[in-house]
């Protein structure tokens, strides 16, 4: 088997005296959708943020395409081909949709901008309608679309998605997950998805990891975890 695109080895990270990650190991191969599921406070978002340099890991390594990127600055990591759509969207509220998308494209060749913009508008037609509207005036679903589109404007090889379904109506969630499925199938985009909605995540992903208490407790194909009684009881049937 080829070497993984992303390899996380023994990653530990803390907020002050609280250790949020306690030695996490994850592998993602090119072209996969891999999801990380777990309850609130399990350390899921911390893992994505640590991969991007904040908080800086206290131990362990993050290897991307054979290169150790542990603790690099976020900007440097973006230039290597990783983009993140963060939890809570974090778009620029005073900028228009178009200006937000331009910000996503700053690390790429400007010659690609028009082509990439058209692709973003094809994926999310609502953004084309709202392109001159300030980001802060968009609905929650539209802001999530913008956050994902902005990440894709950097032409990443690895897309990190942090809780893309959070707080959204089911119809919008289905639309966003369909776009993730399409960019993986049609563009070969590798996706690492952190998601509290375990059912949607497992239906979408090829493989999955279960994070609890800052450690990986289980991993396998999505089909295996969907059929696992522990996973069903804890994450798919209203358990915690």
Write the layout of secondary structure elements.
Layout: E1 6-15, E2 18-28, E3 33-37, H1 44-51, E4 59-64, E5 67-68, H2 74-79, E6 82-85, H3 97-104, H4 113-123, H5 125-129, H6 140-152, E7 158-162, H7 170-187, E8 190-194, H8 198-204, E9 207-212, E10 215-221, H9 222-226, H10 229-236
Parallel strand pairs: 3-8, 3-9, 6-7, 7-8
Antiparallel strand pairs: 1-2, 1-4, 4-5, 9-10
Helix pairs in contact: 3-6
What does this entry show, briefly?
The protein has helices spanning 44-51, 74-79, 97-104, 113-123, 125-129, 140-152, 170-187, 198-204, 222-226, 229-236, and strands spanning 6-15, 18-28, 33-37, 59-64, 67-68, 82-85, 158-162, 190-194, 207-212, 215-221. By secondary structure, it is an alpha/beta fold.
Identify the notable features of this structure and list them briefly:
Rossmann fold, globular, 6-stranded mixed sheet, alpha/beta, 240 residues, 4-stranded antiparallel sheet
The CATH architecture classification of the largest domain is 3-Layer(aba) Sandwich
Overall body shape: globular
Mean pLDDT: 91
* Strands, count: 10
Q: Which stretches are poorly predicted, pLDDT < 50 over at least 5 residues? A: none
How many domains? The number is 2
Q: What Rg is obtained from the alpha carbons, in whole angstroms?
A: 17 Å
> Approximately how much beta-strand content do the residues carry?
25-35%
How do the strands of the widest beta sheet line up side by side? 6-7-8-3-9-10
According to CATH, the homologous superfamily of the largest domain is P-loop containing nucleotide triphosphate hydrolases
Give the helix level as a range of percent: 25-40%
What is the CATH domain class of the largest domain? Answer: Alpha Beta
- Spatial gap, N to C terminus: 35 Å
- Helix and strand string, N-terminal first? EEEHEEHEHHHHEHEHEEHH
Task: Tell me the CATH topology of the largest domain.
Answer: Rossmann fold
Classify the secondary structure makeup into a structural class: alpha/beta
Count of helical stretches = 10
The biggest sheet amounts to:
6 strands, mixed
């Amino acid at each position: 088997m080829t070497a993984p695109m992303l390899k996380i080895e023994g990653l530990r990270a803390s907020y002050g005296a609280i250790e949020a990650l306690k030695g996490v190991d994850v592998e993602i191969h090119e072209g996969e959708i891999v999801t990380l599921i777990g309850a609130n406070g399990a350390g899921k978002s911390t893992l994505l943020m640590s991969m991007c340099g904040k908080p800086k890991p206290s131990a362990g390594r993050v290897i991307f395409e054979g290169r150790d990127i542990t603790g690099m600055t976020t900007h440097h990591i973006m230039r290597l081909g990783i983009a993140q759509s963060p939890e809570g969207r974090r778009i620029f509220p005073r900028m228009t949709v178009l200006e937000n998308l331009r910000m996503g494209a700053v690390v790429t060749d400007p010659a690609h901008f028009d082509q990439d913009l058209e692709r973003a508008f094809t994926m999310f037609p609502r953004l084309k309608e709202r392109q001159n509207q300030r980001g802060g005036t968009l609905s929650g679903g539209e802001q999530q679309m913008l956050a994902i589109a902005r990440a894709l404007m950097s032409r990443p090889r690895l897309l990190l998605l942090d809780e893309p379904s959070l707080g959204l109506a089911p119809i919008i969630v289905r639309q966003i997950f369909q776009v993730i499925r399409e960019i993986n199938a049609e563009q070969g985009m590798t996706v690492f998805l952190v998601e509290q909605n375990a059912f949607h995540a497992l239906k979408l992903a090829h493989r999955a990891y279960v994070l609890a208490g800052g450690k990986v407790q289980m991993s396998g194909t999505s089909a295996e975890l969907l059929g696992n009684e522990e996973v069903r009881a804890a994450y798919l049937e209203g358990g915690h």
